Amino acid sequence: MNKKKKSKELALALVIMLGIWAWVYTWKEDYWKFLIGFFLIMIGFSITSFLSWAWLVPIGVWLWAITDVIKKEY
Length: 74
Prior knowledge:
Layout: H1 8-18, H2 27-46, H3 56-71
């Protein structure tokens, strides 16, 4: 079976525009990262009304996704 090579440029563009949803592009390897990121973002958004700094959680997850795509070998 012939495997298609994933494009690093496409993955980087997806992660900048879509955040953690870009991990769906590499779902077989990164499903756990997507799930952890999704739950962290939901927790961050839900506690934003109680803690003023909680909006940093989704931004941190977005930066984690960007650095993961940059470091990954395709």
